[in-house]
Structure formats: C-alpha cells, structure tokens
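INFO  loader      accepted 1 record
INFO  loader      residues=432
INFO  predictor   begin
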Amino acid sequence: MHQRTPAGSPATDTMFEFDVAVVGMGYVGLPTSLAFREAGYRVLGMDVSEHRLQTIRDGRADLLEGDRERLGRALEDPGFELTSDAARLSNAAAVVIAVPTPVDEYLVPDLSILRSACATVVENAVSGQLVVLTSTSYVGCTKDMVALPLTARGLLPGLDVHVAFSPERINPGVDDFSQEEVPRVVGGITEACGQRAEVLLAKYVPKVHLVPTAEAAEMTKLLENTFRAVNIALANEFADICGTLNISVMDVIDAADTKPFGFMRFNPGPGVGGHCIPCDPHYLLWQLRRNRMNAPVIEQAMQDIAARPRRVVDRSRKLLSDRDQGLAGARVLLAGVAYKPDVEDVRESPALEIIAGLAAEGATVGYIDPLISRISSKGIELDSVTDPAGFAPDLVIMHTSHAGFDLGWLDAVPTVLDTTYKLPAAPNTIQL
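INFO  predictor   done
INFO  writer      dumping tokens
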C-alpha cells in the first residue's frame, strides 16, 4: 500500500518503483519518455498495443536520429521498461498521458482514445501520484476526464493526488529543437497541482512557464496550433492570388521574410496533415458551438485548409485538359505521400484525399515515397512504386519532398504539378 502524501508534497522516490509512467508510446509519448529517462528519471512506457511496444523494443520506431540513439541507451537501462499492463501505472510517482486526439470524417472531435486512457489512469491511480495530461483537447478536459473522476474515487486533487495539463510541443521529423530546448507550459487543477507538475518538468527542460489554471494551459495549445492554421490558410490564399497575378509567391514570401520584425514565415502547400493543425482547432470550434459562439476567422481558415486537397485535384484536371486529356484514364503519380518531409507518417495527409479524389474521377493513381511503403485509406490500397519511369505518368504531383529523395526522373515527366512550391523552374513544372 502507498502511504498518503500530505497536501502539496511531492511523492518521494522510495514510495514508487518508477518516477514517471508515460501512457501512449506514439510520436509524442515515446520521445517524451526518452527525454525523461535522459534526465535521470526511472521511466515506465505503457501502451495498449503490444505490436507498438515490440516495434520499439526492436529499435524500429520512427524517430529522429538523436532520439534513436536515446532509445538504444534506454533499452539497455533497467530503469526503463515498456509494458501493456495498465495495473503497473500504480507503481509510478507521476503519470503522463500522451495519446492521440483526432477528429472524425465530419471534423468532430474523437475523444474515444483519450477517454479510455484517462479512465485507465484514474482506475489505477493511487494516493501521492501526479497525473499530467499532455494530449490536445477542449478547454476543461483535464478537469472533466481526470480531476472529477479521481474525486469520485475519493482522491482529491491538491490533497491526495495532483493533476495538471502541460501541452506537448513536439515537431515530428524536425530536429531544430530538442525536447530539452523547448519551454513547457503547465497549469494545475489547483495551485499546488501546478507547482508539483512544474517540479517534474523542470528536471528536463530549462524553462517551465506556470499558468494559473489547467484551462489556461489547454487554451495555450489551441492558440498555438490555431495560429499556425490561420497563417497557413493565408499563405495558401496568397499563393492563389499571386498565381492569378502572375507573380511568384515564393519571391514574395522570401522578400517579406527579410523583415526582422512583424512577420513570421509560412509557406503554401497542398494542405495540412498530422494530428495537430488539421485537428486541434476543431476542438475549439466544437466547444464554441456548444456555447453558441462563432469564430469566423478560425472557421474560414479551417474550411480553406480542408478544401486545399480538392484544389490539387481540380488543378490536375485543368493541366491535363490543357493537353486535351481528361482525368479519366490518365496516369497520375504522387511524389511523396507523408504529411510532412522526413516522417514515416500519413496521418491526415492531404495525399490521401488527393489520391481518393483522382481515383474517383477515373485516374490510375500511384505514388512513390521512400519512407512510406504502403498506404490504405478511403478504400484504396497502394504500394509505393519502385520505378517511376515504369509507371509512365501523364502527370506527377510533387506532394512531399524528403531529404535525399532522388527527383532526377522528374525531368522526363510530361507535366509536374509542384504543390510544394520548392522545385526549381523547369519547362514541365507548374506550381499549384
């Protein structure tokens, strides 16, 4: 039995087998667990998928090189364990929840994974623990899914347990900033809860910004990703405007980017993927609809982002039509399908909707991506082609350009639609 922890006091190391348990070993949870271990914590990584855990144990998880090296060290450390046994969460002084929060096909928040994870944590919680939610969700989620259920169990936040929210700030596939270099925001259900979580995080990040409430921390994450969504939508709109006026949008963005203040660079593209920008603002809009409140700027930005893949399909039709060819029967190859460069991830990738749209109009669609060997989405299953010339495309859509992705074969393609706005000017290349 774990002894009762006095109000405001952190649990001592001797009370628990692990300092931290991380629930969810995905693109956020795994790097987070490795960062905690590097800081000297004893870490338990928990996931419901034994397949995922075995992938990690085999060293095959999709990680940045630095995190891959960390994983190698962690797997040799007896203080780092992986498990699918939720009962072992009671052996950790702190439990960090890092699971996906997607939206469904109607852009409505899908809270099923988060509800299940929070219920599991609450069921196995013991006195003296700290629970930190990091998954992006609506404002008040930490209270609804963690604090109130714990209270119903007789574990009072700020007295028996501590509960806080600290949004994840990981940029998959980009190593410009390690986890230790990115400040963490945290807010607690009570003042003591926030302070307890601040102590946990401060051991591995140089700066922790403590806000007064968990709700303020939850809204911080929604602001961060909504800011990006609105500005990406604006960049896409400027790309369309510049195209109409026969101006290079990248020349314009490069020029504006020379201003050292008052401008932040965002680039246009074929749409937005991943589980952040295309999803997170919808959690806010969903909550606002419940309160009968409109957010017209955010709503328009999200509509524009959702419509972007369709614009790629329409533009493809136009380019083929200009050559007296329709989409029906045309051979269209996508170069890159990952949602962003250098990640083995197609979650919410615009490429999936583009492929489905092209196929629906009768095109024969293929793709080539050195990081994604197979895709299965919207009733379509495809394997990456190995020989783009052998596919004999009538049109290539440049969707995702990975580092080291050999694109020399594009020179021989009749038409290339560059949705990345990054390919060098060429007679056969047209920007979206």
